[in-house]
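Bit of a strange request maybe. I'm writing a small parser for C-alpha coordinate strings and I need a real example to test against, not something I typed by hand. Could someone generate the C-alpha coordinates for this chain?
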Amino acid sequence: MKWMRPLGNTGMQVSALGLGTVKLGRQQGLKYPRAFTVPDERSARELLALARDLGINLLDTAPAYGNSEERLGALLAGQRRDWVLCTKVGEAFEDGQSRFDFSPEATRHSVLRSLRRLATDVLDVVLVHSDGDDLRIMAELGTLQMLRQLQQEGLVRAHGISTKTIAGGLAAAQQCDVVMLTYNLRQRGEGEVLDACARLGVGALVKKPLDSGLLLCGDPQASGDAARSLRDSLALVLGHSGTASAVVGTLSPEHLRENAHCARTFMD
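Reply from user aminoacidic:
Good idea to test on real output. This should exercise your parser:
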Protein backbone atom coordinates (compact mmCIF):
# COMPACT_ATOMS: atom_id res chain seq x y z
CA MET A 1 0.00 0.00 0.00
CA LYS A 2 1.16 3.52 -0.78
CA TRP A 3 0.64 6.72 1.22
CA MET A 4 -0.18 8.75 -1.89
CA ARG A 5 -2.85 7.04 -3.96
CA PRO A 6 -4.63 7.77 -7.22
CA LEU A 7 -8.16 9.10 -6.77
CA GLY A 8 -9.61 6.71 -9.31
CA ASN A 9 -9.11 7.99 -12.85
CA THR A 10 -9.29 11.69 -11.93
CA GLY A 11 -5.55 12.24 -12.30
CA MET A 12 -5.33 13.46 -8.71
CA GLN A 13 -3.27 11.86 -5.96
CA VAL A 14 -4.59 11.90 -2.38
CA SER A 15 -3.04 10.88 0.91
CA ALA A 16 -4.20 7.63 2.48
CA LEU A 17 -5.52 9.71 5.37
CA GLY A 18 -7.71 12.75 4.78
CA LEU A 19 -8.79 15.37 7.31
CA GLY A 20 -12.48 16.06 7.81
CA THR A 21 -13.22 19.64 8.81
CA VAL A 22 -16.77 19.71 10.12
CA LYS A 23 -15.39 20.52 13.59
CA LEU A 24 -13.74 23.67 12.26
CA GLY A 25 -17.12 25.23 11.60
CA ARG A 26 -19.94 23.51 13.42
CA GLN A 27 -20.68 21.89 16.78
CA GLN A 28 -24.48 21.60 16.68
CA GLY A 29 -26.41 18.49 15.68
CA LEU A 30 -23.39 16.18 15.44
CA LYS A 31 -23.07 12.62 16.75
CA TYR A 32 -19.69 12.46 18.40
CA PRO A 33 -18.98 10.66 21.69
CA ARG A 34 -17.41 13.75 23.25
CA ALA A 35 -18.34 17.42 23.27
CA PHE A 36 -15.89 19.81 21.64
CA THR A 37 -15.35 23.52 21.09
CA VAL A 38 -14.82 24.98 17.63
CA PRO A 39 -11.13 25.98 17.59
CA ASP A 40 -9.90 29.53 17.38
CA GLU A 41 -7.88 30.72 14.39
CA ARG A 42 -4.49 29.91 15.91
CA SER A 43 -5.46 26.36 16.86
CA ALA A 44 -7.06 25.72 13.47
CA ARG A 45 -4.01 27.06 11.64
CA GLU A 46 -1.68 24.88 13.71
CA LEU A 47 -3.82 21.80 13.08
CA LEU A 48 -3.74 22.34 9.31
CA ALA A 49 0.03 22.96 9.41
CA LEU A 50 0.48 19.72 11.29
CA ALA A 51 -1.67 17.83 8.82
CA ARG A 52 0.46 19.16 5.95
CA ASP A 53 3.67 18.24 7.79
CA LEU A 54 2.32 14.72 8.29
CA GLY A 55 1.82 14.36 4.53
CA ILE A 56 -1.96 14.79 4.49
CA ASN A 57 -3.19 16.63 1.41
CA LEU A 58 -6.93 15.92 1.35
CA LEU A 59 -9.34 18.23 3.16
CA ASP A 60 -13.05 17.41 3.25
CA THR A 61 -15.53 20.21 3.86
CA ALA A 62 -19.10 21.18 2.96
CA PRO A 63 -21.65 24.00 3.21
CA ALA A 64 -23.31 21.80 5.83
CA TYR A 65 -20.23 22.19 8.03
CA GLY A 66 -21.15 25.63 9.32
CA ASN A 67 -18.45 28.16 8.37
CA SER A 68 -15.79 25.53 7.66
CA GLU A 69 -15.42 26.60 4.02
CA GLU A 70 -14.93 30.28 4.86
CA ARG A 71 -12.38 29.46 7.54
CA LEU A 72 -10.43 27.18 5.23
CA GLY A 73 -10.41 29.83 2.53
CA ALA A 74 -8.63 32.22 4.90
CA LEU A 75 -6.42 29.66 6.62
CA LEU A 76 -5.08 28.16 3.40
CA ALA A 77 -4.11 31.43 1.74
CA GLY A 78 -0.94 30.86 -0.29
CA GLN A 79 -1.16 27.07 0.14
CA ARG A 80 -3.65 26.10 -2.54
CA ARG A 81 -1.24 23.85 -4.42
CA ASP A 82 -0.61 21.81 -1.26
CA TRP A 83 -4.19 20.61 -0.92
CA VAL A 84 -6.89 18.59 -2.62
CA LEU A 85 -10.14 20.28 -1.61
CA CYS A 86 -13.33 18.24 -1.47
CA THR A 87 -16.62 20.00 -0.81
CA LYS A 88 -20.28 19.24 -1.40
CA VAL A 89 -23.63 20.46 -2.68
CA GLY A 90 -27.21 19.72 -1.74
CA GLU A 91 -27.17 20.39 2.00
CA ALA A 92 -26.66 23.60 3.92
CA PHE A 93 -26.71 24.07 7.69
CA GLU A 94 -28.48 27.27 8.65
CA ASP A 95 -30.13 28.48 11.84
CA GLY A 96 -29.33 25.22 13.57
CA GLN A 97 -30.82 22.85 11.01
CA SER A 98 -30.03 21.21 7.70
CA ARG A 99 -31.80 22.21 4.52
CA PHE A 100 -31.60 20.20 1.30
CA ASP A 101 -31.90 21.41 -2.27
CA PHE A 102 -30.60 19.24 -5.10
CA SER A 103 -31.95 21.30 -8.00
CA PRO A 104 -29.56 22.26 -10.82
CA GLU A 105 -29.97 25.94 -9.93
CA ALA A 106 -29.11 25.34 -6.28
CA THR A 107 -26.20 23.13 -7.31
CA ARG A 108 -24.64 25.84 -9.47
CA HIS A 109 -25.22 28.45 -6.76
CA SER A 110 -23.59 26.20 -4.17
CA VAL A 111 -20.49 25.58 -6.29
CA LEU A 112 -20.03 29.29 -7.04
CA ARG A 113 -20.47 30.07 -3.35
CA SER A 114 -17.90 27.41 -2.37
CA LEU A 115 -15.41 28.83 -4.86
CA ARG A 116 -15.75 32.24 -3.18
CA ARG A 117 -15.62 30.85 0.34
CA LEU A 118 -12.59 28.66 -0.34
CA ALA A 119 -10.90 31.46 -2.29
CA THR A 120 -10.04 29.26 -5.25
CA ASP A 121 -10.65 29.16 -8.99
CA VAL A 122 -11.44 25.45 -9.09
CA LEU A 123 -12.82 22.85 -6.69
CA ASP A 124 -10.94 19.56 -6.86
CA VAL A 125 -13.87 17.33 -5.85
CA VAL A 126 -17.54 18.20 -5.43
CA LEU A 127 -19.86 15.56 -4.01
CA VAL A 128 -23.62 15.56 -3.61
CA HIS A 129 -24.41 15.58 0.12
CA SER A 130 -27.16 12.97 0.01
CA ASP A 131 -30.18 13.09 2.30
CA GLY A 132 -30.45 9.29 2.03
CA ASP A 133 -32.49 9.08 -1.17
CA ASP A 134 -29.43 8.38 -3.29
CA LEU A 135 -31.11 6.76 -6.27
CA ARG A 136 -33.74 9.46 -6.69
CA ILE A 137 -31.12 12.21 -6.54
CA MET A 138 -29.08 10.56 -9.25
CA ALA A 139 -31.96 9.56 -11.49
CA GLU A 140 -34.43 12.43 -11.23
CA LEU A 141 -33.12 15.71 -9.86
CA GLY A 142 -30.46 16.79 -12.35
CA THR A 143 -27.80 17.34 -9.69
CA LEU A 144 -25.11 15.20 -11.28
CA GLN A 145 -25.86 16.62 -14.70
CA MET A 146 -25.20 20.13 -13.40
CA LEU A 147 -21.97 19.00 -11.73
CA ARG A 148 -20.84 17.53 -15.05
CA GLN A 149 -21.62 20.83 -16.74
CA LEU A 150 -19.62 22.73 -14.13
CA GLN A 151 -16.82 20.23 -14.69
CA GLN A 152 -16.89 21.01 -18.41
CA GLU A 153 -16.72 24.71 -17.54
CA GLY A 154 -13.51 24.09 -15.59
CA LEU A 155 -14.92 25.00 -12.18
CA VAL A 156 -14.85 21.42 -10.85
CA ARG A 157 -12.18 18.79 -11.47
CA ALA A 158 -14.12 15.71 -10.34
CA HIS A 159 -17.70 15.05 -9.23
CA GLY A 160 -19.57 12.39 -7.31
CA ILE A 161 -21.85 11.70 -4.39
CA SER A 162 -21.52 11.03 -0.69
CA THR A 163 -23.92 8.13 -0.46
CA LYS A 164 -25.94 6.62 2.36
CA THR A 165 -27.08 3.33 0.81
CA ILE A 166 -25.42 0.34 -0.82
CA ALA A 167 -27.67 0.63 -3.88
CA GLY A 168 -26.81 4.30 -4.17
CA GLY A 169 -23.10 3.62 -3.90
CA LEU A 170 -23.22 0.94 -6.57
CA ALA A 171 -25.18 3.22 -8.91
CA ALA A 172 -22.77 6.09 -8.24
CA ALA A 173 -19.79 3.90 -9.08
CA GLN A 174 -21.30 3.42 -12.54
CA GLN A 175 -21.60 7.12 -13.33
CA CYS A 176 -19.36 9.26 -11.10
CA ASP A 177 -15.67 10.09 -10.77
CA VAL A 178 -15.71 9.76 -6.97
CA VAL A 179 -17.89 7.99 -4.42
CA MET A 180 -17.83 8.68 -0.68
CA LEU A 181 -19.15 5.84 1.47
CA THR A 182 -19.25 4.53 5.01
CA TYR A 183 -17.03 1.57 5.84
CA ASN A 184 -15.69 0.52 9.23
CA LEU A 185 -15.41 -2.43 11.59
CA ARG A 186 -19.10 -2.30 12.49
CA GLN A 187 -20.49 -1.20 9.11
CA ARG A 188 -19.03 -3.37 6.36
CA GLY A 189 -21.98 -3.64 3.99
CA GLU A 190 -20.64 -0.97 1.67
CA GLY A 191 -17.54 -3.04 1.08
CA GLU A 192 -19.21 -4.15 -2.15
CA VAL A 193 -19.26 -0.50 -3.21
CA LEU A 194 -15.51 -0.37 -2.63
CA ASP A 195 -15.20 -3.52 -4.73
CA ALA A 196 -17.11 -1.82 -7.55
CA CYS A 197 -14.99 1.32 -7.31
CA ALA A 198 -11.80 -0.74 -7.53
CA ARG A 199 -13.12 -2.64 -10.54
CA LEU A 200 -14.31 0.48 -12.37
CA GLY A 201 -11.44 2.82 -11.56
CA VAL A 202 -13.60 5.16 -9.50
CA GLY A 203 -12.12 7.14 -6.62
CA ALA A 204 -13.46 6.00 -3.24
CA LEU A 205 -13.31 8.16 -0.13
CA VAL A 206 -14.26 6.40 3.10
CA LYS A 207 -16.15 8.46 5.67
CA LYS A 208 -16.57 7.42 9.29
CA PRO A 209 -13.74 4.85 9.23
CA LEU A 210 -13.69 5.09 13.03
CA ASP A 211 -17.50 5.31 13.26
CA SER A 212 -17.31 8.98 14.30
CA GLY A 213 -14.92 8.00 17.10
CA LEU A 214 -17.29 5.48 18.65
CA LEU A 215 -14.92 2.64 17.84
CA LEU A 216 -12.30 4.25 20.04
CA CYS A 217 -14.26 5.60 22.97
CA GLY A 218 -17.67 6.16 24.42
CA ASP A 219 -19.20 2.96 23.04
CA PRO A 220 -19.75 -0.03 25.34
CA GLN A 221 -19.33 -2.30 22.31
CA ALA A 222 -15.95 -0.85 21.42
CA SER A 223 -12.69 -2.45 22.42
CA GLY A 224 -11.14 -1.19 25.63
CA ASP A 225 -7.84 -0.88 23.78
CA ALA A 226 -8.13 2.32 21.73
CA ALA A 227 -4.77 1.79 20.05
CA ARG A 228 -5.78 -1.66 18.85
CA SER A 229 -9.15 -0.39 17.66
CA LEU A 230 -7.44 2.37 15.69
CA ARG A 231 -5.02 -0.09 14.14
CA ASP A 232 -7.72 -2.62 13.25
CA SER A 233 -10.01 0.08 11.85
CA LEU A 234 -7.41 1.64 9.58
CA ALA A 235 -6.09 -1.77 8.54
CA LEU A 236 -9.56 -2.73 7.36
CA VAL A 237 -10.23 0.49 5.46
CA LEU A 238 -6.80 1.13 3.98
CA GLY A 239 -6.27 -2.54 3.25
CA HIS A 240 -9.07 -2.53 0.69
CA SER A 241 -7.77 -1.97 -2.82
CA GLY A 242 -10.68 0.34 -3.60
CA THR A 243 -9.91 2.90 -0.89
CA ALA A 244 -8.20 6.07 -2.04
CA SER A 245 -8.39 7.83 1.33
CA ALA A 246 -9.92 7.40 4.78
CA VAL A 247 -11.32 10.73 5.99
CA VAL A 248 -11.05 11.26 9.73
CA GLY A 249 -12.06 14.43 11.56
CA THR A 250 -10.17 15.50 14.66
CA LEU A 251 -9.18 18.69 16.44
CA SER A 252 -6.53 16.98 18.56
CA PRO A 253 -2.93 17.28 17.33
CA GLU A 254 -2.11 14.17 19.37
CA HIS A 255 -4.86 12.14 17.72
CA LEU A 256 -3.91 13.44 14.28
CA ARG A 257 -0.33 12.28 14.82
CA GLU A 258 -1.51 8.90 16.10
CA ASN A 259 -3.85 8.45 13.13
CA ALA A 260 -1.14 9.31 10.61
CA HIS A 261 1.47 7.16 12.34
CA CYS A 262 -0.90 4.22 12.48
CA ALA A 263 -1.91 4.62 8.83
CA ARG A 264 1.72 4.75 7.73
CA THR A 265 2.48 1.43 9.43
CA PHE A 266 0.48 -0.25 6.65
CA MET A 267 2.41 1.46 3.86
CA ASP A 268 5.02 -0.31 1.74
